[in-house]
Known about the structure:
This protein is of the alpha+beta class. The chain has 13 helices and 18 strands. Strand 12 (about 335-345) and strand 13 form a beta hairpin.
Amino acid sequence: MLDITFIRENPDIVRAALKNKNREGVDLDRVLVLADERKKLAGEVSEINRKRGVAQEARDAEAGKQLKEDLRIAEEKYQTLEKELVSLLVKIPNIPSADTPIGPDESANQVVRQWGEKPQFTFTPKAHWDIGKDLGVLYSETGAKVSGARFTYLAGDLALLQFALLNFTIKTLTSRDVLRAIIQTANISVSDNPFTLIVPPVMMRSQVMNRMARLDPIEDRFYFEKDDLVLVGSAEHTLGPIYMDETLTEEVLPIRYFAYTPAFRREAGAAGKDTRGILRQHQFDKIEMEVFSKPEDGFAEQDFLVAIQEYLMQQLKLPHQVVSVCTGDMGFPDQRQIDIETWMPGQDTYRETHSADYVGGFQARRLNTKVKRSDGTSEPVHMNDATAFAVGRTLIAILENYQNEDGTVTIPEVLRPYMGGKEKIEKNS
């Protein structure tokens, strides 16, 4: 949520954000009127309380009785006004950063850099759904029979490869030496504090997800109304609120977490899209990073997270490109969004595998998560979330880039220690 003072002082910037993020339905003029009325009412409540104190000292019971009634009426007006104001404020998106491309949709996204050579095959490369089926490690038909469309079983070495990715990530993110090397290579000025592994809940109260600005659109969430619980669409949904309604000291920042969880999405707007394979599932697994930092370090922390993502993909030797996401395609709470798209030769295209979202103080303001500065002042912490691995999509990239003419798939060298030294995925017996 944006600070009302910022909105009042920068209405043109906010209007531009509403337009560029395709959120023009918010009545900003009404927001400003309500904000002024709230400020006026707050002053009236304060003045009534002052007069009540005077009446009490003078032991004027009659005046005290009238002032009590005046206070009740003023507070009711304040609460009604506050409710309407907040209902509008939560619909205003975060302001895109100055370097975010302006555009209506993904067509305006900009490739920042590319890495790696696309593999050259002496045969026609297959898509992952055919590779997985032929190897007996991907059971899409069984998933559909048991759970319906967009559910799949992973088996044998493909399932082991999933946990190899997890163990490789754990080794990377918990190693100060590895992180320091990434920082030096990327020439970023940030702390080398390691990440702490978290096993978080995968269900959360709808109110808390709304405070994270991730509940909308509710149609894409699995919501259990009876329990008022929502299944997470990413681990950051329950990592972000860890310090909800708390104040941190700046000495402990940055705090870095990562978590491995299943993620759940209805894919309500994807009817008929990517129905084959495991690219777009109702249930999938992700390794997600979350960072809490001082405001002045927020952009650098995002750059660091992107550098980690690039390191992980370079270690897997998967060709990819880093993309600056435009205003019309970026997330509602995002100030700057950077994606990584990985080459999928079986589909002859790049597909998104990673996202890094810098949200500034936007979520923290809604969560009431603050940092107390050394001068005694407090302000919202700044938050970043980023994918370490969207596991299913990374498995797709490995299957398609490392496929061999005999139907086997070569295991990336960096993952072999976590696969018992095995070099290839062969047909599952």
